[in-house]
Amino acid sequence: RADHRPHQVLENPPHRLPPPPAHIRTDHHRRTLTLRLQKHPLNKLRDNSVGGGDSGNKSDKLGPPIPGEHASMPGVDPWKYQGDSTTEGSGPHGQRSPTLKDIAVHEAAVIAATMCRNIWPDASDNLYHYLENTGEAQSINVDGMLEDLDDMRNNSQERVNVMLRDAIDDAKRNAEESGTTGPVTYPFSTAWRLEYVDQDEHPNWFYATGGCQYATEGTITLHPPTSDNPKWTYSYNYRVHVADRYNWDGDKSTQIFGMTVTDAQLQELHRAGLAQEYDLAGQSSIKRGSGEWNE
Question: In 3D, which of 18, 234, 175 has the Cα closest to residue 107?
Answer without folding.
Answer: 18
